[in-house]
Amino acid sequence: MSGDSGPTWDRGHTGVPDQQAGTRLNGAPGPPAPGAADAFASTPAQKKAAAGTIETELEPNTKKAAEHADDATTTAHKGFDGWETAAGLKTVADTWDQQVKTLMGRLSSEKAALRGASGLFTRNDIGLGNQFLAQSKLNGL
After folding, report:
1. N or C: which end of the chain has fewer CB within 10 A?
2. Which ranges are annotated Low complexity under compositional bias (predicted)?
3. Is residue 94 a contact partner of residue 74, using CB atoms and an 8 Å limit?
């Protein structure tokens, strides 16, 4: 069709092969360049700081909030004693307590993982360095 402005196969094609063929999800950034400073999402110091924030802020503040909610719910429960509302409040309080317990466990796990990750990377780096050193000595380098 003459004058058709629809898309064609070669529109925008330069004839130069793509030098970085690969697969990645839409919207996902490509891999970092070798040796790039931002190859890791965080530094050991940032992991340590995040673990400290969990320990000094999130865990104690979550515990305080849970205790405050428990106190308020207990007071309300007493005010509705003998009513169906009291039974409903008890159910809500039990669910809340279980959710807080789960959250506190998750915070504790994340804190431990953050603290362990830095040590893991360090031990891995030292181990690989020792392997390379041993290999270079075997090869007379």
Report:
1. N
2. 35-45
3. no
